[in-house]
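Sharing a chain and its predicted structure for anyone who wants a worked example. Both blocks are below, sequence first, tokens second.
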Amino acid sequence: MEGPADPLLRKIIHIDMDAFFASVEQRDNPALRGLPVAVGGSSRRGVVAAASYEARAFGVRSAMPSVTAQRRCPDLVFVKPRFDVYQSVSRQIRDIFAKHTDQIEPLSLDEAYLDVTANKQAIASATHIAEMIRADIRRETGLTASAGVSYNKFIAKLASDQNKPDGLCVIRPEQGPCFVAALPVKRFHGVGPRTAEKMAALGIVTGADLAAKSEQWLLQHFGSWGSYLHGAARGIDNRPVRPDRIRKSIGGERTYGEDIWTEDGLRAALENVADIVWERVERAEGQGRTVTLKARFADFHTITRARTLPQPVEGRAMFGQIGQALIDQILPLHNGVRLLGLTLSGLSRAGDEDPPDERQPELPFV
């Protein structure tokens, strides 16, 4: 099997906290330790935001309806989320990363890519850096993290999931193609349940099955994503770690225990959602021109309304005003609203340019 095409290999670490939200709750409340814990609402319309490993043993997963989770695990303990605490711990972890490199690409509060090819402490071994980071996280936060170490982002992320929880997996360049070939494609980042079903219908179950297909065939069946899949199946991924990566959109939504039937109630609910979303926008230092309102009614019918400005939205007040104007478009209410969301998209930073895909000097990998 052919190996990676890039002769000048990066050293990439993917850090993924173990059951992050649930682990923080178990850390802060010793009575929860060893119990199946779900972070989220326990109401009929609640959704699991995170599950402890004890809960996962019963098949409880994030994004699962709370009623389903309770059915699978009758002893499940529900805990309300404390996002301010999770954000604070995430900043602690980010500070640990920054001891080693500024090339940090956060994916969420609990995971990030790090490029340590040229690191602050001039440590030759990426594996050693990953071990140091995991030890510092445990000592400073009382939590565990799993790490994947490899020569590109795609394989590093796969590797971090290989020995969870509290695990470390190193995939060297010569091992990459065989490692990918043996994995089911449903493990690949970006391959969701529907794509996995489509691939299975086309005879693609493993990485080896994917690697057997030509790039032209993959482009025909998966569009422009086919080129990425063609390289990934061979252990190739030339994407750089992007420390200044801006999300294309930032949003938030809330599901309500009781349907909202009145205009005043709907407008008050929108202001609450707008506060939450704008805090995220400010934290990301982003600016965007499109505001989208999402409303789901009691019968699960969902509608969206959007407005795009010729210039970026200037501040929380304007963001809320546009949201309220979008509310006008769905009034009067003929059905109760069970979910309300608001999103700012078309995000950028003033003066942003994509950084060049620079080649790092080759160093011993581990």
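Comments welcome. The domain at 249-345 is CATH 3.30.1490.100 (Dna Ligase; domain 1).
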